[in-house]
Amino acid sequence: MAEKKLLMLGDPMLYKPSIEVGPGEKEFVAETVRDLHDTLMAFRKKYGAGRAIAAPQIRIFKRIVYMNTGTPLVFVNPVLAEKSGELIELWDDCMSFPGLLVRVRRHKRCRIDYLDGDFKEASMDLEGDISELLQHEVDHLDGVLATMRAIDGRSFRIGEIERV
């Protein structure tokens, strides 16, 4: 198992933007995805929650996101496109600050363009909670945390993470 230590809220490295993955980094991506998977599964075992993780959360500052909501998906160099004007409000949580919930606004719908784990171009239309989830993860790639998107100064609470 290659579980990695997560960067936690307050660590200045969480605010560092990630760089794009290059065309010759397919094996690096595969190794990173194994680490992301193992770290996500360990978090899930401990907290009973966790659907996705971005590479910067384990100190890899490349544009890679791993999501597992039943089927594992890899997003290399993801770009959010066609964001809807309609927003949703929700309590957001994060593996980098378990137990802290942040009230944020996210686009209800968007499209994500990316390379899959085999470096093939792909695109997905997203809506609702999956749209929110991938917006959250792409924010990590840009060095942006949910705490920075809080609606106002009262948009924080200590609470239990929603279960998978």
Explain briefly what this protein structure is.
This protein has about 160 residues and is α+β, with helices and mostly antiparallel strands. The chain has helices at about 25-45, 130-140; strands spanning about 50-55, 65-70, 70-80, 85-90, 100-105, 110-115, 120-125, 155-160.
What keyword list fits this structure?
Peptide Deformylase; alpha+beta; 2 helices; globular
Strand order of the largest sheet: 1-2-3-6-7
Which H/E pattern describes the elements?
Answer: HEEEEEEEHE
Q: Low-confidence stretches at least 5 residues in length (pLDDT < 50)?
A: none
User: Biggest sheet, in brief?
Assistant: 5 strands, antiparallel
Radius of gyration computed on alpha carbons: 15 Å
What do the pLDDT scores average to?
95
CATH architecture: Alpha-Beta Complex
Class by alpha and beta content: alpha+beta
Indicate the CATH topology: Peptide Deformylase
The figure for the number of domains is 1
Strand content: 25-35%
Helical content class? 10-25%
| End-to-end C-alpha gap | 22 Å
Specify the CATH homologous superfamily: Peptide deformylase
